[in-house]
């Protein structure tokens, strides 16, 4: 399972997953009672903390090349963490630190033997990973949090080796799922606008059936707008248009077709049904005043809306419009193209 994960990670350039897998493999090999790893006698609490730390660290890492100075640096980091586990696994000082108790717990609650340092570290680690998912939600971060939570249950639950082996297999499944989901997201989602990309549109066109309405949308005079205000402002316009298109009602699904062109598909709907919803989207975009982003323009939409109301003329606002062509599958119009 881990080898398959590494192969997929290499294929889809998810290199940070490789380093997480390498460290999880050490834990698996120890539980599997492979002699070379059993002889290391890794300290369970320290190794658990190390695994959690590696997951947290690489959740923030970028998918840089496996080879080269970045790859060597990450491998060196893993080696140092592993060396600490091996060199100090029977250190009296280290054991004293790991067994330090912040508060006295009742022995009847079966918590008196729990290493409270572990509890503190795992709390911080899970909060960091949860915050990471809130800030940058995606399947990869969600699955890394699930793996960290699983390691926590394994460590404090004191399960037998067979259950732990099953858990490591599930970790491999979660990592494979994360790699494939992340790669699918990159392939079928438009990075700039967040809408589904042209590839997703063509894929979904296969299952549209015999009745649907297709709308093509184009930002008016977009080249002139880019030449006047610059490509950064042009990107802002595309993101604005995309956000409004994504709010389309009536069962429409918005896609970015390419450049300043967008597509909305209404499955099982007629032209007459779709036009009022498209007209509403067109009006929403035309009536929206967009502030040209500058250094003091707020990132939050609500702050920006408040600032527009209080504007006294210091901020430059622009309006953009879109044109829409719409057709229904009927008569000679039977092919999606």
Please give a handful of descriptors for the protein shown.
single chain, 337 residues, alpha+beta, Alpha-Beta Plaits, 2 domains, four-stranded antiparallel beta sheet, two-stranded antiparallel ribbon, 14 helices, 6 strands, 9% strand, elongated, membrane, EC 2.7.7.65
Total E-strand runs: 6
**What is the 3D form?**
elongated
Helices and strands, in N-to-C order?
A: HHHHHHHHHHEHHEEHEHEE
Rg for CA atoms: 27 Å
Q: Kindly report the average pLDDT value.
A: 79
Strands of the widest sheet, in order across it, are 2-3-1-6
Poorly predicted sequence stretches spanning 5 or more consecutive residues: 108-114
- What is the makeup of the main sheet? 4 strands, antiparallel
Give the count of structural domains.
2
**Tally of alpha and pi helices:** 14
Helix vs. strand class: alpha+beta
CA distance, first residue to last residue: 42 Å
* Helix amount: 55-70%
Strand content: 5-15%
Give the helices and strands, then pairings.
Blueprint: H1 2-11, H2 15-31, H3 35-38, H4 44-59, H5 69-87, H6 92-98, H7 116-135, H8 139-157, H9 161-188, H10 198-205, E1 212-219, H11 222-229, H12 231-245, E2 253-258, E3 261-267, H13 271-286, E4 290-291, H14 301-310, E5 317-318, E6 322-328
Antiparallel strand pairs: 1-3, 1-6, 2-3, 4-5
Helix pairs in contact: 1-2, 1-9, 2-4, 2-9, 4-5, 4-7, 4-8, 7-8, 8-9, 11-12
Give a description of the structure:
By secondary structure, the protein is an alpha+beta fold. The chain folds into two domains: 2-188, no CATH class; 198-328, Reverse transcriptase/Diguanylate cyclase domain (Alpha-Beta Plaits), CATH 3.30.70. The chain has 14 helices and six strands. Strands 2-3-1-6 form a four-stranded antiparallel β-sheet, sandwiched between helices. It has a two-stranded antiparallel sheet with strand order 4-5. Strand 2 and strand 3 (261-267) form a beta hairpin. Mean pLDDT is 79; it is low at 108-114. It catalyses: 2 GTP = 3',3'-c-di-GMP + 2 diphosphate. This is diguanylate cyclase. Keywords: Membrane, Transmembrane, Transmembrane helix. Its EC number is 2.7.7.65.
